[in-house]
Design goal:
Strands 7-6-5-4-2-3-1-8 form an eight-stranded mixed beta sheet. It is globular and about 35 Å long. The protein has a single domain, classed as Cytidine Deaminase, domain 2 (3-Layer(aba) Sandwich), CATH 3.40.140. By secondary structure, it is an alpha/beta fold. Helix content is about 25%, strand content about 35%. The mean pLDDT is about 95.
Length: about 140
């Protein structure tokens, strides 16, 4: 099972709303026991594209976030971004740019009044699997 701490989910939601109408982005850090995955901390990053339909992560921020994640003894669980105007599912561009089939891809949709957050695995053939998770 995948668990995401409520405070971290709320940080993603706040970041997405603050950066609206642009997509927000960041990393998911935590622990993977092999059986369960715990998303314990998010590392928000700057969308250098400042766009509502795609994102690029600032390389210097990425480096600092990974260094901080390691110092906090967390693993790179995955990344996340928002979809301001579209559903919480990987776009064709998201699938094309999913280079690591071992990490999770989180997408928060602000398309409707109630935000929708989903986690996905995307394999090397670009097949998408929606994963179950719990907010704790």
């Amino acid at each position: 099972m995948i668990y995401i701490y409520k405070l971290q989910y709320e940080k993603i939601l706040k970041q997405a709303r603050n950066e609206f109408p642009n997509e927000c982005c960041g990393y998911l850090g935590g622990l993977d026991s092999g059986k369960d995955i715990f998303i314990k901390k998010i590392y928000s990053l700057t969308n250098t594209d400042h766009s509502s339909d795609h994102f690029s992560m600032d390389p210097a921020e990425q480096f600092r976030a990974v260094k901080l994640m390691r110092s906090e003894k967390f693993n790179m669980i995955g990344n996340y971004h928002s979809h301001p105007y579209s559903p919480s599912r990987p776009s064709e561009e998201d699938k094309r740019l999913a280079f690591d089939d071992k990490i999770l891809y989180g997408i928060l949709s602000l398309e409707k009044e109630k935000p929708v957050f989903n986690l996905f695995k995307i394999d090397k053939n670009k097949n998408v699997e929606k994963l179950e998770y719990k907010i704790v």
